[in-house]
Amino acid sequence: MRLIECRDHGELHLMECVDDDIPRYAILSHTWGADSDEVTFKDLMESASKNKAGYDKIEFCRKQAASDGLKHFWMDTCCIDKSSNTGLMEAINSVFRWYRNSTKCYVYLTDVSTSDHDRDSHSSQIV
Length: 127
Fold this sequence. Notes:
Elements: E1 2-6, E2 12-16, E3 26-30, H1 41-45, H2 55-67, E4 72-74, H3 76-79, H4 85-101, E5 104-108, H5 116-120
Parallel strand pairs: 3-4, 3-5
Antiparallel strand pairs: 1-2, 1-4
């Protein structure tokens, strides 16, 4: 399992975890944008991700995890190396377990709108 670790000063680092040594982490469930907008594993490895629209989801998750006292989070678009068929199959077979074992699960839905009334209520802010 790969996790994104938030280091000092907001620096993000992709780390490999072994099943018996996985730190507490958050996980992000989200709607997907266009492939060209999503931050991929390769983008994150090459630090080429901040200019993509999908980076907003990473920032959302980073900030929410930090507010919940978590330094690690997982997001399918950039924690799974889709260039490796073996890695991709392993990830597909493990996703349920990763969701189940997460400390927190956040949802980022760009295709859901709310009215002004909902934005002012606490129910729309519950994560």
